[in-house]
Each structure stands twice: as structure tokens, then as C-alpha cells.
């Protein structure tokens, strides 16, 4: 299974974009969607065992630890691990005690953990860097306890032509219809996933698709350095529009990212 390396300059560029409009929209929408799935599947107040594979700087892992869950984050990029550890060190002792960070590759979950060890497994923004993700996904499904859910955030392979087309790059748009390969804004050659293909894969690994959302329907074309609105009211209106579009056809079908939730039988 080959991968596109996410390290060095790419990791630094990613960190520099945290807090910008596109990343705030992504993190906030995914957080709301994860919370919706947790509320639908588990009793209120239950302390869940969460695994965040490819946790990056730890945004979602820390958020869930703050909510009272026991969280394990696994990440292989040293710069991102350092940022996550620094953020965790700034938290109160109780939160620090609920989160641990494992340096490693998401393909090696079976080395670190027993099958069925987690109620929730997150894998956000990782599959685009894995050329053949089926083995990784099967390993993640094995980590789930019965009734647990797998949260995947992927690039939407059925909407690759949208960004180029809306930017007036007609040659790029035409080429994008016939491929799942693309170059991301970090300058890396990566891949996208199609909804139907991933749904089939999830069914085959025992965590069939339960719900899915679109993420960044309206704001994907924003500049890398675009900032969030200064007014909280304006930001909430933007997020409300994105959230509504992300659960409504046909809008979610052309979102830049797909958030898929599979449930272990």
C-alpha cells in the first residue's frame, strides 16, 4: 500500500492554514456531524472510547476529550505530533488524563490495539494520501466494538470538476470527470473517493454506511488565506447554510469533501 508523504513543508503549510475560513468550516461542520452521530447511537453522558487515526494537530481529538471521552490519537508526522502535544499540555489535568498520543501509522492499528477496543473511530483527511485504502479501512473496522461508528472524511471523487470549473479552468474540469487523482492545495498529488465505492467497501468490512454528509459546499473556492467573518452572527449564518447544504440533495453531492459514517454490526 503506497502513500503520498504528508510531511515537512506540507505539514507546515497545513498548520499555517488552521483558523482560516476553509479550515474553520471543515472542522466545525465535522464536529457537529460527529456529535449528531454520537447522540443518536449512545446514551447521554456515556464516556466513549475514541480512536482518531491520522489525528493531525489534534483538533477533533482534543474536542472529544474536553467532552469527557477517552481519546487515543495516532499520528506519524513529528511536526503535527509536537503541535498536538503542546495543545494537550495546555489543557487542565483532567483533560490531559483522558487523551493519549501514539506515534505511528494508521495502517498499524492492529499492532497497538485489540479488536473491538473503541466505540468511535475517526479517520479524517487521511484516505486521500493512501493509494489503496481497503486494508486500512478493514483494520479500522476491526477496532470498533459492536454498535460503534466509523467516521471518514474524504475528498469527493464525484465532484472533482467543480473547483476547476467554477474557477474557469475548463481543461482541468474536463480532465477531472474521468479520474480520481488531483493535486491538492498543498501541492501534493493525491486521490479522491467516490461515495458508491466507499459505501460498498464499508458494507464489505462489516461497518455499513449509516449516514453521510457533504462538507464545504459553498466555501471550497475561498482563498487559502480567507479569514472567518468578524461578526459572530455572520459566521453562524455561513455555517448554518453550509450545514443545511451538507445534508440536502443535490447540494451535498457536489461538496468538496464527504463525511461518511459506518456502523459496526
Indicate the percent of residues in helices: 25-40%
Describe the biggest sheet?
7 strands, mixed
Write down the overall geometry. globular
Strand content: 15-25%
N to C succession of SSEs: HHEHEHHEHEHEHHEEHEHE
Structural classification = alpha/beta
What's the end-to-end separation, in Å?
Answer: 27 Å
Number of helices: 11
The strands making up the biggest β-sheet line up spatially as 3-2-1-4-5-9-8
Q: Give the radius of gyration.
A: 18 Å
Uncertain stretches of 5 or more adjacent residues: none
Work out the number of β strands. 9
Query: What is the arithmetic mean of pLDDT?
Result: 95
Keywords: Methyltransferase, S-adenosyl-L-methionine, Transferase
Protein name: Methyltransferase domain-containing protein
InterPro entries: Methyltransf_11, SAM-dependent_MTases_sf
GO molecular function: methyltransferase activity
Q: Overview of this structure, please?
A:
It holds the Pfam family Methyltransf_11. This is Methyltransferase domain-containing protein. Keywords: Methyltransferase, S-adenosyl-L-methionine, Transferase. Residues 51-151 form the Methyltransferase type domain. One of its GO terms (molecular function) is methyltransferase activity. By secondary structure, the protein is an alpha/beta fold. It is 40% helix and 21% strand. It is built from eleven helices and nine strands. It has helices at 9-16, 21-41, 59-66, 78-89, 93-96, 109-112, 134-143, 160-166, 170-176, 195-204, 232-245; strands at 49-53, 70-75, 99-103, 118-124, 144-155, 181-183, 189-191, 209-215, 257-263. The strands form two sheets. It has a seven-stranded mixed beta sheet, with helices on both faces. It has a two-stranded antiparallel sheet with strand order 6-7. Helix 3 (59-66) links the parallel strand 1 and strand 2. It is globular. The chain starts with 8 loop residues before the first helix and ends with a strand. 40% of the residues are buried. The model has no long low-confidence stretch (mean pLDDT 95).
Amino acid at each position: 500500500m503506497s502513500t503520498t508523504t504528508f510531511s515537512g513543508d506540507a505539514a507546515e503549510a497545513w498548520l499555517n492554514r488552521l483558523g482560516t475560513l476553509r479550515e474553520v468550516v471543515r472542522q466545525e461542520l465535522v464536529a457537529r456531524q460527529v456529535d449528531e452521530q454520537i447522540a443518536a447511537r449512545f446514551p447521554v453522558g456515556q464516556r466513549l472510547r475514541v480512536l482518531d487515526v491520522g489525528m493531525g494537530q489534534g483538533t477533533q481529538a482534543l474536542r472529544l476529550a474536553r467532552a469527557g471521552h477517552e481519546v487515543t490519537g495516532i499520528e506519524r508526522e513529528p511536526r503535527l505530533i509536537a503541535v498536538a502535544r503542546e495543545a494537550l499540555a495546555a489543557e487542565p489535568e483532567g483533560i490531559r488524563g483522558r487523551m493519549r498520543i501514539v506515534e505511528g501509522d494508521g495502517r498499524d492499528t492492529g499492532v497497538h490495539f485489540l479488536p473491538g477496543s473503541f466505540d468511535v473511530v475517526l479517520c479524517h483527511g487521511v484516505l486521500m494520501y493512501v493509494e489503496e485504502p481497503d486494508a486500512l479501512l478493514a483494520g479500522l473496522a476491526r477496532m470498533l466494538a459492536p454498535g460503534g461508528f466509523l467516521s471518514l472524511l474524504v475528498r469527493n471523487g464525484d465532484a472533482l470538476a467543480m473547483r476547476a470549473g467554477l474557477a474557469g479552468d475548463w481543461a482541468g474540469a474536463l480532465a477531472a470527470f474521468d479520474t480520481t487523482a488531483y493535486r491538492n492545495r498543498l501541492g501534493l498529488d493525491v486521490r479522491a473517493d467516490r461515495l458508491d465505492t466507499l459505501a460498498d467497501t464499508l458494507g464489505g468490512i462489516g461497518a455499513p454506511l449509516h449516514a453521510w454528509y457533504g462538507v464545504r459546499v459553498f466555501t471550497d473556492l475561498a482563498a487559502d488565506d480567507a479569514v472567518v467573518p468578524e461578526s459572530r452572527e455572520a459566521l453562524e449564518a455561513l455555517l448554518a447554510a453550509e450545514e443545511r447544504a451538507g445534508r440536502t440533495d443535490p447540494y451535498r453531492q457536489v461538496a468538496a469533501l464527504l463525511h461518511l459514517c459506518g456502523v459496526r454490526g
